[in-house]
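Quick one:
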Amino acid sequence: MQFDIQLAVAGLVVGFVVGITGMGGGALMTPILVLLFKVQPLAAVSSDLVASFFMKPLGAAVHLRRGTVHRQLVLWLVVGSVPSAFAGVVLLRLLGRGHEIQQVVQNALGVALLLAAGAIVVRALLQHRGYGQAGDASDDAEVPVRRIPTILVGVVGGLIVGMTSVGSGSLVIVSLMLMYPRLTSARLVGTDLTQAIPLVGSAALGHILYGDFHFSITASLLVGAIPGVYLGARASAQAPSRLVKRAIAFVLVASGLKLVNMGTVPLGILLATLAILGEPGWMLVKRLITPPASRALPVPEPEA
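Output:
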């Protein structure tokens, strides 16, 4: 397979979204490869993970320069995630070969996308409740690491990423918000991006050795994705990231349900229902979780 300009354009779009929101790489690119470009699920996961390994350092470098990375937290996440991500690839191989393994990967990817969509909603609700808001702890010493739970988050996150390429920017960061509510939003994102480098690197190595890595797919994606991440990061201050994240959640639900073989008609009805009732439902949920004493006060809109 030679260089594909359409894949490069897809990489540009996904990279731009990642630059704006800090999330959505594997969760968007892998289903695009499977559903739009008809790439086999295992090849899509393998190629996307290798591409992600070259994209992650761009955002992490910015946060390291700004000092918005909890280094001890990164260390203990990596202790769990690196071996687990590699083990996830080996587990895929043990589950079957040929068409059988492709179906396993497709179903696992669909479930992971639905979990990622749920994680976006949970993250928005946590932000609405004040998690990660300005004024919280901004020094490592103020947020001691809970080692065993953190390692377990790394293990679970690594396993999911190794099998599906999804989760390093969605599932892990929600777990960190729940476990470390005093971390600022910037430190949450910086810590998550930094720990994702060795995590994705381990998963990528596993897929190069045991997966179905296609160099031409990855190269085409990177041609668009790297400038896309840069442009998205430059535009992040002005872009409506809240609306972008909502659109990502909608796309993840649609892609996840399609990958688990939901019929076209019921899928269309469900998506139309979400489009119509999603915003009123979101406003109702926010009102229900807002403490009574705070309802009279204006609440900043969370970025999701």
